[in-house]
Design the sequence.
């Protein structure tokens, strides 16, 4: 995914996993080369939820068979197990914290000590965004987030094909279907903004990396 926001110097386009433990050299999208001599001070990770979120359970059998779920699971776990003192990994409610992993992927469960329950769950409306989206955070070396601006979540009308309608909480699913995938990969302000509190509250030396990856 191409970078956005007008700051190519903040973005790396490529496989992030070789960089997770620090001691690495990489190029940002402005063409500059950077070297990290030690470990990262902090990792804020937003791995794809496409193959892990329980909202897509009806597709799990096919994704187990073709390997997508195994790849997504292993990718996610590499962030949890990175050699870094401060880590935050964001995802919706997914298979990491339940017995599903132990049943279908016992080798990965044993390797990474799964299941692992999230440290906390948050909602966008706790941070000034009037939407509902249960978001899980797996934290290492960081305190749980505290709500900073609790607002009332908005209701929107969902029109059905039969002409009926119902009110449901506003969330990203109301975007056009061709925009949803990009929206999830960019991780709207609803999810990203709360995690910036970690950067403001923890003393770091500037070696903080926010990672948004992609598996097949």
Sequence:
């Amino acid at each position: 995914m191409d970078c956005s926001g007008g700051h190519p110097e903040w973005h790396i386009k490529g496989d992030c996993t070789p960089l997770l433990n620090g001691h690495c050299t990489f190029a940002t999208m402005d063409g500059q080369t950077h070297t990290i001599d030690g470990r990262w001070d902090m990792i804020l990770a937003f791995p794809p939820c496409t193959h892990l979120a329980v909202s897509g359970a009806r597709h799990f059998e096919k994704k187990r068979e073709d390997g997508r779920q195994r790849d997504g699971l292993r990718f996610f776990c590499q962030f949890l197990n990175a050699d870094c003192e401060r880590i935050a990994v964001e995802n919706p409610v997914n298979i990491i914290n339940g017995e599903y992993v132990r049943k279908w992927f016992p080798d990965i469960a044993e390797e990474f000590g799964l299941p692992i329950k999230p440290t906390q769950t948050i909602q966008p409306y706790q941070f000034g965004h009037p939407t509902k989206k249960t978001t899980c955070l797996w934290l290492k070396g960081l305190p749980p987030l505290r709500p900073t601006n609790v607002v009332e979540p908005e209701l929107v009308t969902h029109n059905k094909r039969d002409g009926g309608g119902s009110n449901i909480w506003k969330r990203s699913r109301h975007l056009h279907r061709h925009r949803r995938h990009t929206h999830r990969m960019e991780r709207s302000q609803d999810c990203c903004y709360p995690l910036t509190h970690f950067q403001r509250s923890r003393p770091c030396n500037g070696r903080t990396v926010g990672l948004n990856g992609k598996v097949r």
Q: What stands out?
A: The mean pLDDT is 81. The first strand starts at residue 24 and ends at 27. Residues 14 and 213 are 8 Å apart (CA to CA). Residues 8-150+189-211 form one domain.
